[in-house]
Structures are given as C-alpha cells and as structure tokens.
Putative 5-dehydro-4-deoxyglucarate dehydratase (Gimesia aquarii), 309 residues
Amino acid sequence: MSLQIENQQLQTVHIVPLTAFDQNDQINAEVQSAHTAKLYEAGMRVFLPGAGTSEFHSLLPEEIIELVKITREVAGPDALIFAPIGYQVGVACQTAIDSMKAGATGIMFMPFAHPYMSDRGAEEYYLSVMDAADCPTLYYKKSDIPSDSLLLKLAADKRSIGVKYSVNQMHQFRTTVNADQDGLEWICGSAERFAPYYMLAGSGGFTSGAGNLCPHLSLAMHAAFASGEFERGMQIQQLILPIEDYRARAGDSFNISMLKYAITLTGVDFGPPRPPQRTLTAEQEKEIRQLMEPILEAEEEFAQQKSPV
C-alpha cells in the first residue's frame, strides 16, 4: 500500500451520493455523473458511492464498481473515494480489488448483515479483505460488532485510517477516541443531526445524505464547527434538520425515499428507490415539498455567497 492519507483530508463532509436509476432500473450514468460533478463543484472531496444512502444493500458488486468509476472520472484525482464492502468474504475481496482498479482510494467496511457475529469473526473477515486489496481502510460501526476494543486493536494496522462511528453514545465515543494511540480519524457516521456533538467529542468530520440536496449548507455547517463558530454551526444545522428529522421517521425507513423524492424538486430524476425501500404517499410527498422550499432557498443563498463576484 503506497498511498498515504493525512487525517486532515478526512476532516470534512463525507458525502454518500444518491444512486441514479433509469427507466430500466439500470444505473443512469449521465445523471450520476452530473450529480457528482455538482457535489464536487460545491466543495465535496470525500465520496462514499454505493454506501448506505446509495442503496448498498440493493446494488450488485458490479454496480458498486461502476459508481466508483463514475465518481473518479468526474471528481478527479484529488477526491477521496471509498468503496463500500460487505456480504460474503469472497465477494467482498473481489469487490475491493475491482474497486481499487476502478479508481477507489480505499474501502469502507459496511455494517455486518450476517447473524451470529463476534469480534473474532469480524477481525478475520476484515483482515482477509484487507490482505486481498491492501489499501486504506475505513470501518463502519453501527452496532456492538465491531467492538471499540477491536477497532482500537485494528488501529495499529497501517492500512486502517478511520472509523465511521454511528452508535450515538457520546461518552462511549469520547472514551474510545481518547484511548486511540495510533491516530485513527474518528468520523461521525450519523450525519448532520449528531455531527455537532461528535465534533465536540473528537470527530473531525461527518457523513451526509442531506448534502445531496444542500451541499453548500452541509459544508458550511462543518466549516463553522471546525473553526469554533458553534452558534453559527447550530444555526445552519437548524436549516438542515427538517431533512434529517423526516428521514429518521419510522425507524429511519424514510432515509432514502425522502431524498430520492426531494431531489426531483431540483429538476433531476434519480428514479425510485429499489425495493424494499418504502414508497411515499401523496401526502408525504406534499410534506416534503413544503419542508424543502426554505432549505432550497437557503442552499441557493449559500451557493451564491461562495461564488466569486
């Protein structure tokens, strides 16, 4: 593994781009490319194509690789791109290898979908894939496995660069960050709703799905907290929260469906989410239209502020 990533490069917003499907339920490369270009132009530099909000669990390995390739072609050489990895270990190894060939910077292990999990099994799985791909590696923690102890053990591996932490127990998170002697980057994996509290506890960045709709707002929120402007950061968070609160309804089951409908309000059709994601009712679509109106107005204002006069 020759590529070295500095922690500072990860201390930003990690965007999980929506996946565009055409009328035949194939990846719409034209729409995907244009959307990625828009995110890059707004300032996004860390991409997680094919991950959770990108409908990871409904994507084929070759579709993940295609999304990585599109992202690299559009975002350019300075973007960090982490391919999501999961499922059977053989599939995981090959997807990791092929993603690196397609232009990924590294891989991110998704939360396990397997039953009967243990730290020992998780560690063996991780190392099998890492040995196959030999690349910068992120871990996504969303449950008890991997444990904090295992993550701290894996931190000593030179290929380990960070953890996407999404358990939302702040004292536990802070204690683990303080125990890290190897310098992993600890990233808020729970988006804008929890990002301020993670950043106070030691996170340098956060993942975002809302950034598909309002990338300038998400980046401005991060910049405010990173520079210690907490009041301004919370004001910007307040603008974004209606998106996050809606996505969190009914056990987070609106996570993808809400974003996929909301992005149509910007004039772009990404197609419906794949089953088993929920479909929206006419009343829910009306609610989303209403809540998005002030957010899109604010996004335009922030975009104009960033543009050179």
The two ends are 43 Å apart (CA to CA). The first helix runs from residue 7 to 10.
